[in-house]
Amino acid sequence: MHMCCCALLAGRVGCCGPAKWPPATKMLCVSGFTAAKAGWNGRKGGLEWSQEDPNYLWFTPFGEPKRLLTRGGTGAQEAANRLTRTPSGHPEGYLEAFANIYSEAADLIRALETGAPLAELAHVPTLEDGLQGMRVIDACVRSSEMDAAWTEV
Fold first, then answer.
1. What one-character DSSP code corresponds to residue 100?
2. What are the tens digits of pLDDT across the range 57-99?
3. Which residues contact 13 (CB under 8 A, 6 or more apart)?
4. Which of 19-23, 72-76, 78-82, 124-128 shows the lowest per-residue confidence on average (mean pLDDT)?
């Protein structure tokens, strides 16, 4: 498996130009996963929102500079703050991700205690998952030391 450090960290492939791709690698370029964007124009100005940056809303009042509004940030209205479950700086889904891990771990522990089969229950990170993560980090460091060269993981 070949990977470019910046591609891995950005969650995208194609940050290195085709000249740096290994000869056996087919060109793959993913510039955005969904790139869902929305814009609204009204009597007082316009709004812009992007699914890839869901915590930010751009407000452009007519005749004034663009303003960045953030989820849970200064200027957010009380109605929006009441529905914000995580503090500013933590993406929505942050708490749910931990809840999923804890729930899966509890199911696994319960199955081990009762002798129930483990099939399909073990959706928790394993030691091998952790080791693979460390291998990827090591490859990123080595890639960086070699001027962002493609590096075997």
1. H
2. 899 999 999 999 888 777 777 777 777 777 777 777 777 778 8
3. 4, 7, 28, 29, 30
4. 19-23
Give the pLDDT of residue 60: 94
84 contacts 72 by C-beta, under 8 angstroms: yes
Query: Which of 37-46, 57-66, 71-80, 101-110 tops mean pLDDT?
Result: 57-66
- Cα distances (angstroms) measured from residue 112 to each of 106, 116, 119, 140: 10, 7, 11, 37
In order, the DSSP letters of 104-151 are HHHHHHHHHHHT---TTT--S--HHHHHHHHHHHHHHHHHHHTTS--E
One-letter amino acid at 23 equals P
Q: How far apart are CA 80 and CA 72, in angstroms?
A: 8
| pTM (two decimals) | 0.43
CB–CB of 105/124 below 8 Å? yes
Give kind and range of the element (H or E) at residue 103: helix 94-114
Give residue 86's identity as a one-letter amino acid code.
T
| Backbone torsions φ then ψ of 2, nearest 5 degrees | -105, 145
